[in-house]
Amino acid sequence: MKAAKIDWEEVKRRLAAADAAIALAWEPDEAEMARRLKMRAALVARENEPEQAVEDSFEVVEFMLDKARYAIESRHVRDIYPLERITPIPCTPDFVLGIVNLRGEILSVIDIMKFIGIPLREAVDFSRFLVLVRGDMRFCILADAVAGTRTIRKADIQPDLPAPMEADHVHGIADGQLVLLDADELMQDPRLIVKEEI
Amino acid sequence: MNRWTVGSKIAAGYALAFFMVLTLGYFSYRNAVELTEGASLRAHTFIVIAKIGNLLSALQDAETGQRGYLLVGDESYLQPYISGVTKANQALQELRTLTADNPSQQRRLALLLTLVNDKFEELKKTIALRENKELAAALKIVKTNSGKDEMDQIRKIISDLLNEENSLLNARTNLENAGASSTRTFILYGVAAVAFCMMLIGFAVTRAISDQLKSSMSQLASTSSQILATTTQISTGAAETATAVTETTATVEEVKQTAQLASQKAKSVSESAQKASQTSIDGRKAVEDSVGAMQDIQKQMETIAERVVALSEQGLAIGEIIVSVNDLAEQSSILAVNAAIEANKAGEHGKGFSVVAHEIKSLAEQSKQSTAQVRTILTEIQKGTSAAVLAAEQGTKMAEAGMKQSREAGASIGRLSDSIAEAAQASVQIAASSQQQMVGMDQVALAMESIKQASQQHASGTRQAEEAARNLHEISNHLGEMIGVS
After folding, report:
1. Alpha-carbon dihedral of residues B92, B94, B95, B99, nearest 10 degrees?
2. A96 pLDDT more than 60
């Protein structure tokens, strides 16, 4: 019991320090405020530094799927939604997960991994819908997370793919790990038009 | 014989000798009495013979007187006749008396009496005739010779009487002589026999007694030497006893001092026990106080647990808020991405908006990271509160256990107190007992002193006894020499 003996003064001191710290967090003093503002300013400043020519680059939406990073041209992405309940549809190919109601609009949901033939490495954690549009074609693909938009220079794209990444509709690899999907090809794939008869 | 005591043997010997002497004396006395009787009978016979002589002489006197009177006629001549008649009658009477034990003499005397009476009649008749002057008639009677015949007959009877008496006398003399002779013989041989018998008896008695005495003496000699040896041993033992008693007395003195020490110790133990009793009462009170304190601790622990649980519940609210914030951040993020996409679609005009959208997305991401951190911290807090609740619960249980233990300790102290009280009482008793023991030891010491004196007396007594045994031994040796025990 002697080892577990508590120095109550120490405890009180620590408690008071914690109280003060919390109070400080809610009402930061001038120096803290200045530090935070400076940090934000630094962040903002960094974001602004690379300015690329429009011709040499294009905007993509980067998303995570099965621990791997993927990107798709943002002009094909209409918008992004949090995960909703998917209603399975019978008599459809296995890459069609079902349909979903997004703000009154009924859209089919495609498992892009199965569709393009990338083998599943680990369990996926779908949490986002990406609504892709090309002309009349509209459908959803699922992603684990959406990182955001970014600009990719065409020069950075490497068309060669490593062995496990070999699949259809892949434009190339950027930044070593980012798999750039070819949205035009993907959208024109005739497999997407499901016309099953039973 | 051997069963007889020496006294009875001696008495028996003397009794036998006395009996013999008595027998001898009795027979001697009887013989003497017989001799005396024989002498008196002889004297009697002589008297009878003298009386017979007197009778004859009296008769002759009476006849002489008659003749004289007849011749002379003078009265004075009658005098012998008268005295003779009287004397004769008297003598006859005496003879009858003297010979009353002899029938033949009595018969003769009766005949003699008749003859004497006839004679006296004749004499009387003749005297009467002479008185009447008739001398012739008287002479005629005399001349008949009847008187003379009668007288001859009388003489003959008297002669017979005398013969008888003489023969009696002879017989008695012979008898007396024989008695005297046998008495002499008896005395001679009797005394010799008695002397021989007494010699024999004396020898036998002496032999028996001396045999017995000899064996007794040899036993006495061996016994006295044994007694001497024993008394010597006893004397040695008594000396040893005296030494031992002296040592024991010293030991008793030591024991006494030890008892005194024990008494003091017991007293101090008693005081200590009383103090301990008081202390145990204090301890009991302290345990009761500690039980109360434990109860307070338990209550405090319960309060702490409740507070911590309340904090935990508040943490839950914080978690809900965090979930909401996270949701908002997600939505903001999605919105930012959508805004960026829209901005891209707007082309060159949307460029600035694209930057803002990107900024918003970055903020949303930071918010998400912060909420993740808060969630982590909250998880830590939850863990901490759980640990605190667990600790409080354990504290409550420990306090309960402590209470139980304290109660047990209280009970133990109570029992201890009882035990100490008993011990105190016991030690008081021990103190009293040791006091008594000390008194007893004093008495023992006193008794040991007495025993010491007694043992010294005993030692001197045994020395005297040894001396006496030695004397006894010498006496027995001396006696043995006297009796002739080798």
Report:
1. 150
2. yes
* Whether B336 and A148 lie within 8 Å, measured CB to CB: yes
Asked if residue A181 belongs to a domain, the reply is yes
Do the interacting molecules here have an ipTM over 0.85?
Answer: no
Kindly report, residue by residue over B287-296, the tens digit of the pLDDT: 889 888 888 9
* Nearest residue, CB atoms, A146 vs list B337, B345, B348: B337
- Both A41 and A64 in one domain: the answer is no
pLDDT, tens digit, 9 for 90 and up, residues A148-176: 888 888 888 887 666 555 566 787 888 77
Residue written as token pair 């507070």: B307
| Same-domain check for residues A17 and A102 | no
| Residue A166 and residue A74 in one domain | yes
Answer whether B93's CB lies under 8 Å from B150's CB: no
Whether residues A65 and A99 fall in one domain: yes
Which candidate, B263, B265, B272, places its Cα nearest to that of B424? B272
Q: Give yes or no: residues A132 and A160 share one domain.
A: yes
Q: Quick one: DSSP state of residue A75?
A: G
- Type of residue numbered B440: G
Q: What is the pLDDT of residue A100?
A: 92
Of the residues A40, A55, A80, A140, the best mutation for testing chain B's interface (the one with the most B CB atoms within 10 Å of its CB) is A80
A79 touches chain B (CB under 8 A): yes
Closest C-alpha among B116, B127, B122 to residue B90: B116
Structural domain harbouring A92:
57-192
Residue A54 makes CB contacts below 8 A (sequence gap 6+) with B348
Enumerate residues 6+ apart whose C-beta is below 8 A from B363: B332
Residues 6+ apart with CB under 8 A from B12: B4, B205
| Polymer length in residues for chain A | 198
Residue A169 included in any domain: yes
Structural fold of domain B229-483: Helix Hairpins (1.10.287)
Q: Which of A43, A75, A80 lies at the smallest CB-CB distance from B337? A: A80
